[in-house]
Amino acid sequence: MKQQILSQLAPDHPWGELLHCFDCVDSTNTLAKSMAAKGAPHGTILIADRQTVGRGRLGRSFQSPSGMGIYLSAILRPQCSPNELMHLTCAVAIAMCDAIEEATGFRPGIKWINDLIWNRRKIAGILTELSLEPSTGKVASAVVGIGINCCQWEVDFPAELRSTAASLTMATGRNIDRSTVAAAMIRALHRMDQELLTHKALLMERYRAGCATIGQEVSIHRADTVSHGRALGIDDNGALLVKFPDGYTEAVNSGEASIRGMYGYV
Ligand code: BTN
Fold this sequence. Notes:
By secondary structure, this protein is of the alpha+beta class. The chain is built from six helices and twelve strands. The strands form two sheets. The chain has a seven-stranded mixed β-sheet with strand order 1-2-3-7-6-5-4, sandwiched between helices. Strand 8 and strand 9 form a beta hairpin. Helix 3 (88-104) packs across helix 5. Biotin binds at residues 27-29, 51, 54-57, 60, 62, 71-73, 114, 125-127, 145-147.
């Protein structure tokens, strides 16, 4: 896999020599966090063929079978405070839509905040995790994890995911070369990294344009409550602006809530 990916990156791509490929890990995000703590440089990329404990947002798991998907984590070291990175997951989502479109011709939609979708089903998820410098409170590292279902047909998913999950193969009707998608992901993450702190407004404008949640009736799931409203928009920090039936509008934070469409997953 490593040689196939490198052969599709420019020979002088700055992140090419920071690429690590593994047959099996528990979670590329968990391994990336431990490599970051030991000093792994900005631009380190980890890719696994399989994960035994693939992790998703809000404590969920991410199914990561061998030969079927891309499970990738990148270590970034932006020089900023955490509140300047509230839009990171949105920026990664746009970069991944760009990468998938470049590699396959198909552009996924986005379900707030971190899911890429096709036909109201989830194709990919993003998990971003920050570590802070204890003395300054600044960002020490940001681990950006992306899992993309590439080669599955519907029968390949476990029964409980069959009606809500999809893959790039299902979306395009074609076989997918995972190394081509992985190379496009690395290029897109590198471009995103160059714009992350300087082009926030533009990134958020692109995110809003690609986000299928805006305008939808949604249910908002918090720890122990479910409420219903209409998604009006997304603010510059990635919070979902929801209008409730009593007219009250709230910015719903992605760290505390997930959403579902009123009539299905999206
Ligand atoms: C979600 O669906 O909530 C996010 C899923 C993120 C999965 C990716 S796969 C690579 C990286 N390693 C993990 O354990 N999780 C992310």
